Amino acid sequence: MQKVYKNILVLIVGFCVLHLVFQEKTTWFLVVALVVLMLSAVSQPAAVYIEKGWLRFGEKIGRVNAAIILFLVYYLVLTPIAFISNFGKDPLRLKAPEKSNFDFKHHRYSAMDLENPW
């Protein structure tokens, strides 16, 4: 139960900090902090319900954050790197060559080549 009250305390402090940051614009942060404080002080089931709701909200926001961050990393970092690294190259040899795709390997095989083939 002590963990529940620690999470409630963090929630209340967070709303108080938001009230201090947006002091002139909104006062509902302070109202929400006081309501959460009163409900959690009056009944333990209400505190558990508030904490579970807050953690569920945090999980959903975390999923959205992860999706947004992965989207930004992929399209702002990895895509330009891929375009720059493949510019002018044909690593899969998809374009038709002038002569043939066959590569001659000028190597004289010996017994040492067969000892560790992998």
Could you provide a short overview of the structure?
By secondary structure, the protein is mainly alpha-helical. The chain contains 4 helices and no strands.
Shape: elongated
| Sheet with most strands | none
> What is the string of helix and strand elements?
HHHH
Low-confidence stretches: none
| Strand-pairing-aware structural class | mainly alpha
- Number of DSSP helical runs: 4
**What is the CA-atom radius of gyration, in angstroms?**
31 Å
Fraction in helix: 55-70%
Q: Tell me, rounded to a whole number, the average pLDDT.
A: 86
Cα distance spanning the termini: 58 Å
User: Strand content of the residues, in percent?
Assistant: under 5%
> How many E strands?
0
Could you give the topology of this structure?
Layout: H1 2-21, H2 28-42, H3 44-85, H4 111-115
Write structural notes for this entry.
There is one protein chain. The chain is elongated and about 85 Å long. Helix content is 69%, strand content 0%. It has four helices and no strands. Helix 1 (2-21) runs antiparallel to helix 2, helix 1 (2-21) crosses helix 3 and helix 2 (28-42) packs across helix 3. The mean pLDDT is 86. It has helices at residues 2-21, 28-42, 44-85, 111-115. The protein has 118 residues and is mainly alpha-helical.
